[in-house]
Amino acid sequence: MTAWKTKDNNMQIVLLISRDIKTTTVWDILFKQKNYCVIHETSPRHALQAARLLAPALIIVDLDLPGAERISLCRDLRRTTNGALLLLAPQSNADEISEYYCAGIDERLSPTISPNALLNKSLAWLTRNQYIAPRMNSVRVYA
Question: The whole model's pTM is what?
């Protein structure tokens, strides 16, 4: 696990969870050019620890795991942050995709997405989350 304290408290953290070093190197460069703090993890266990400690504004999951493990990881990551959770997963059936969304992902993307397209989607999610105040307590609505 990697921990990094920044001088700028306003710097948003992006957590990349992937074993593909070539791809994450490209993503790392692109996010750092946009002044984001980038943390890279290769294992689900270390990724969960990093997410709990750092509460990233964006998490990108690109791990080749069996469906049930990937869904469980997404569910566990969602419990750690209100930030955006993007999942890179191959095309699957509608039921499995529905389970990903129920587990808390914000968007499922194709693993073949270009680095620039991923950066643009990520920046849109990061910008959106800056303007949405996190809800810490449940809200009671009366009819």
Answer: 0.81
